[in-house]
Design a protein that fits this description.
Mean pLDDT: 75
Largest sheet: none
Distance between the termini: 38 Å
Oligomer: single chain
Structural class: mainly alpha
Low-confidence stretches: none
Shape: globular
Strand content: under 5%
Order of helices and strands: HHH
Number of helices: 3
Helix content: over 70%
Length: about 90
């Protein structure tokens, strides 16, 4: 149960930081920000694993300290914001 709460908090913080850094206006409230951050954690963790090991493994960073996990989650959230903008702009 503590892991789920930890991921929810990490997702909320990462999503909020990514929205603050990313240029332009992004819609969505607290839940959208948390979902964006959680998606970002998985995107960031997957990209980190791919770049670090050369292997594709879907998942968030595990066994890491808070700062690297947060940085990967924020960068992944920014990628998710970019992709979401492309999808909704063409709709």
């Amino acid at each position: 149960m503590g892991g789920i709460i930890g991921w929810a908090v990490l997702g909320l913080v990462a999503g909020a930081i990514a929205k603050a850094i990313y240029p332009g206006a992004q819609g969505g409230g607290l839940i959208a920000t948390m979902i964006l951050g959680l998606i970002g954690a998985f995107v960031g963790g997957t990209l980190y694993t791919l770049l670090a090991t050369g292997k594709f493994a879907l998942g968030a960073m595990t066994g890491a300290t808070l700062i690297p996990s947060l940085v990967c989650a924020v960068l992944g959230s920014m990628v998710a914001i970019f992709i979401w903008g492309l999808v909704t702009r063409n709709a």
